[in-house]
Amino acid sequence: MNNKENFFKGIIKENPLFVSLLGMCPSLAVTTSLENAIGMTLGVFFVLVLSNFIISLIMSNSKLADLVKPVRIPVYIVVIATLVTIVEMVMHAYLPSLYFSLGVFIPLIVVNCIILGRAEAFASSNKPLDSVIDGVGMALGYGLAIMTISIFREFLGNGTLTVWGDLQVNLTFIFDFLKIEPIAMFVQPVGAFLTFGLILATITAIANNHKNKLAKKVANNG
Question: Would you say residue 14 lies in a domain?
């Protein structure tokens, strides 16, 4: 696998949320606004990329790897927890509104199976540079997924898109034109699962259609 394939696999073929269905609960919980999704993406990006890099460095050293292998999962968690603590402290100090909005889901990044899964499945057995590329791709794929969900949920539920702080796009005129009200259900928990399900159904339909076209093309050429 070259660097390009390593990078793009996390965005498309192995998207952690839309394909692997990892870390669903915290992901759906924070997607009530685009701002929350962007904030969570930044936190996960920092933790995932650096944890992949550090764990790869540890496991690439044969002497350290021999010591760590019997207790590798606790070691991974210590590395991840340290990085999450840094993210939490920085957010609390410089982005207090985002910190309180994300709440308990910031420290829960520690047990996010996307991060621990990449540490065990990739970083532990690949070189640091490859692990960083993998982390960047996976983090971007995760971020694009939760931002897509949040855009639908906030727009349909409130008629707005809160990009960051006071930077908000008011789209209620669309609802006024259609003479309907925003659907508050979409910013509630049930709306998260409904939106996620509809997006997954759309992605599955597109993928199946693509596979069918390829199969017909191969059959015709054969």
Answer: yes
